[in-house]
Design goal:
Chain lengths: ~500, ~350
Amino acid sequence: MSEKVVEMKGITKRFPNVVANDHIDLELRRGEVCALLGENGAGKTTLMKILYGLYHADDGQILVRGLAVTIDSPKAAIALGIGMVHQHFALDEKLTAAENLILGTKQAKTVLNMKEIREEVVDLSRKFGLEVDPDSKVYQLSEGVKQRIEILKTLLRGAQILVFDEPTAVLTPLETKDLFKTIRALASQGHAIVFISHHLEEVLSISDRIVVLRNGKVVGERLARETSQAELAQMMVGREIEQVSRLKGGETARPVLEISGLCALNDKKLEAVRNVSLTVRKGEIVSLAGVSGNGQKELTEVILGMRKATSGKVIINGKDVTNKSTKAVIQQRLGCIAEDRVGWGLMMDRPIAENLILGLHRSSKLSTKTPVTNFLKNQEIQQYTKQLLERFDIRGAEPNAPVRLLSGGNLQKIILARVLSQEPEVLLASQPTRGLDVGATEYVHKLLLELRDKGIGVLLISEDLEEIRALSDVIAVMFRGEIVGTLSAESATSEKLGLLMAGVKETEAVKQ
Amino acid sequence: MKFPFRLEKAPPPSMLRRALLPVRALVATFLAGAIPVMAAGANPLQAYYTMGVGALGDMIAIAEVFVRAAPLMLTGLAISIAFRAKFWNIGAEGQLYAGAILGTLIAINFPELPPWIHIPFMIAAGMLGGALCALPGILKIKLKIGDVVTTLMLNFIMVIFTSYLVQNVLKDPFTRWPQSPPITDTATYPILIPFTRFHLGIVIALFAALVVGYGLIEYTALGYEIKAVGSNEVAARLAGINPTALTIKTAIISGSFAGLAGVGEVAGIRHHLIATLSPVPIGYGLTGVVIAVMSGLSPLWVVVVAFLFSIIINGSQTMSRLTGVPIFLSEIFQGLALGFSLLFLFLDMYRIRRVR
């Protein structure tokens, strides 16, 4: 057994209403990849933020290389050789890769010796397979390369202990493969690695040791070679998980959403949606696969009447709604589960009941029409809310409590409950399980299949290949605003989808 | 050496704590206000006592508290409703004058109309004036012109425009004063308590806040939509609400209440249009902002806080006369009240923790 570099003992961190870390013990060893696995809110990120000096533990002790230390800022953490690669990159987009790398380091003296710096960067890149062109500006680079810069940043600052916070969330499958190679190389050079994730498959393939957290406590520790996905899932959730199985999708039915030749600009007035054509039929799930930022957001906004289409058409239930108001689109029975739950979906400072009735508040069930105005039936609203909370199994929620007190999974359920109670015929679901834990994800998947079987047409926008392959009848891949390939569910393999998502055209993809 | 305190998000405050915000702010105001009172050479306890007696000492004084509270609750209500939709209407002052102008135009004419037609006619005109004056605020929707700026600037325009009117076009030819001709008897708000100035407008203001305003916010679909758009415009939009139309409706409702306040001042108190309907330097319009924030945008608390402010403003006059402190202390109290309200709102959301 190799040398322990970090020991965290009895770490406890309390937030209002929740204990995020409850007496957690964790050891990190030289040359070992240790995965922190757990559902959202299990306390993984909190624990690592404590190690990196972003949070302060209420209780507990940290030993680095056998010595008790106080880490009260990221600066102190860096001095101890601890580095963190965050989920959201902290890079200056207008500077070059090399310039970003030296920001805040010893090399950033009054006079910059760029030559020396570039040499060091190239050297490190080569050593760990982190290919980066030191002279390209960051905004030109893909997410994968930006992540490499982040990794290099920590290495340049002398990190021996590296924390990766959900590093694969922004990567394509191919980029993930490269990242894993790098992580392996780092470990073999004696770095201690922490890999935070809630993807079982990834965790099993990259780590040596897996520590599972649930509700702020360590529920178990396994060596990767001695465990299985099923065991880990059960530890994570605390019960057994059923795998969602795909049923045969709907036959050639009536189209409910038809998009043809759609083009639109993004906020920078650049073409973000290029000639997109897509048909969703009654009772089928059509997936739009692709890495975020390839025009999916703009496409959603055009469908919803929140962004102007420069050309092309959107037809819902046979009615042309191109460039019509959002209200007109919604009236064609389109429901939207937005990607940005908090920003688009919820009224965080309002009670749960108000969040659930939004859109139905003028229905005859919930309000009385008078010549002056519609009066809300507050009693019926309370009852209706309780029914929905029960039907969607949103536990521990009171109709009058503010919605912000709910967990991520329950917030998504609130949105689902609201959208579905409006009985849509077309459902636009954008990243519906992103950031959700295994249990909630399973719930959403089952629900989407149920809706499909009831005859609702679903357009699923996602970058989770597992999800896409498990649910879809038809898969379209979007890259740089274009649909670069459309596959049937049977013919779509992860490799094919991955290549298409990375921008390799269909004909080339088929050859590979 | 590190700063030994840290700001953290706190759990949401209890309903009671939230509801008691105006009370807490008021207690703090009087404690802190003792310093300027002492600096002015008076005993704070004695000063506050005279303030209370001055404002509530006899029937006439109490009636005056109602007289003062009426426009305050209307502007406070106007702003509360606008702020609920995140329509930052800082222009209740201008809307008050716009209401007064249109109301006056109706009130100085049509002497042959019976009061039960003339008064509603004047009220409708005044509310229309306030609404029209609030509408430029919605320029933010299409042209991205800040609603704070447009509504605030219109305050100055309307006050100066009123001043122009009463010195030129609308000037009463029979006096030397800058004022309009007197309104007709048929448009004058009747006095409801003899030998006081307790007029019909006070009852109208109370009805507007307690029944119309509170009912709108708590019991109607429109009020719900106002809260929804204010809380998350995109979510509201995705539920089929048209935020543009809703903001226009909100502006109209908000402006009409401020306009109604202007009508009340003309028809109930002054009986002609003047350019100083609302006391300087802090007019009813801007005081309404303080009242709205302090009430947590709740129409019920707006009424309570409007009375408290009315007591402070009226009582300060007596306090000044009897203890010799400057009358401007009243404005210091109002400023302190706003400051403490914001401070307590902030402290309800965050807490300060000592770090080792």
